[in-house]
Amino acid sequence: MNLPRILCARFSHLALVAAWGRHPELRSEPVIVGGAPELRLPVLAASAAARASGVRPGQPLREAQQRCPGAAFVAADEAAVAHLREELLSRLNRLAPLVEVGGEAAWCDLTGRHAAHPDSTGWAVAVARCIQALLDDDDVAVGVASSRQVAEIAARQAGSRHIRRVAPGGEAAFLAPLPLSVLPLDPVVATRLAALGLDCVGAVANLSAADLQRQFGPVGMDLWRQARGGDGRGEWSPGHGLGIPDPSRRLGERIVLEGGTGDLEALRFAVHRSALDLGDRLRRHGCRAAAVTLVCELEDAEPSGLRITPLQQPGSGAELWPVTLELLAGLVLTAPVTAVRLEVEGLQPGAGRQVDLWRGGDAAGEEIGGAASRLRARFGQTAVRRAELTVDPGDLPERRFRWTDPVAADVGGEGHGPRVPEHRRAALLSGIPTAAMPALRR
Amino acid sequence: MPTPLSEALATLRRRHGEAVIRSGDALGGIDAWPTGLPVLDHRLTPEGLPVGRVSLLAAASGASGRLTLLQALVAAASRERTAVYLDLVGSLDPGFLADLGADLDSLLVVRPPSGRWGEGFSMARSLVMAGAPWLAIALPAAGADPGTAGGPRPRSDLGWEHRLSTLVESVAARRAVCLVSAASPLPAALGYASSLTLECVADGWEEAHGDVLGLRTHLTVVKSKVSTPGETAALLLRYPRPFAAAEAVGRPVVIDLTATRRVLDVTAVASDIPAVAG
Question: From the candidates A224, A368, A378, A388, which should be mutated to test the interface with B, based on the most B CB atoms within 10 A?
Answer without folding.
Answer: A368
